[in-house]
Amino acid sequence: MTMEYLDPAQVDKRKNTSVSEKLEILIGERDIAQKVKEMAAKISSDYAGRHLSIVFISNGAIIFAADLIRSIEIPLRIDSIRTSSYSGEFSTGNVKIMSQVKLDIKDRNILVVDDIIDTGRTIVQVVAHLSSFAPSDIKTCALLDKPSRREVPFVPDYIGFEIPDLFVVGYGLDLDEYYRNLPHIAVIKT
Ligand code: IMP
Ligand code: MG
Q1: For a pocket test of ligand 1, which of 118, 143, 154 has the largest count of ligand atoms closer than 8 A to its C-beta?
Q2: Greater confidence, 2 or 156?
Q3: pTM of the model
Q4: Is there a contact between 5 and 179 (Cβ–Cβ < 8 Å)?
């Protein structure tokens, strides 16, 4: 299935033409919803009876985290952290932590939630940063994983879908900050 997403401001800026970009759905809404519920059930049982503090990586993980936490059935606290590394479709490889967590995470069990693991640099950097606050445990969770793109060794604890080396948008993932509001995961056709 193909859909068109026409945003004149974006098309002007990126291509300087009036041609819209074509998107092809890679993972549909229902498949995402089912997977998120399965992940939440696993997290609920793994953390039963323990403190859980979720730190999601903003902005990309905002939609995934919002759905995930509403299906987790144990008490939890949430916070977010901002990073930046991508410019357009290309990772700059230079991950910056742009904000701090406000939760006291010392001696807590932390679950870091991201939208996608690509080179691995962002999540590795965030885990290292959070570790400096002496939590008792840090695990990681991402909706999508592109293991073939890894530049630093990293295996997430909870993963939704493994995908091939494609640049995807939607369900929180962006291209130059656009497309985060799509309800599914899509690939931009060139
Ligand atoms: P990494 O540091 O290379 O693992 O990149 C992780 C971050 O880059 C994620 O948190 C995403 O925000 C972004 N990213 C990686 N791959 C994609 C993609 O295919 N589409 C949109 N954003 C991506
Ligand atoms: Mg991003």
Answers
A1: 118
A2: 156
A3: 0.89
A4: yes
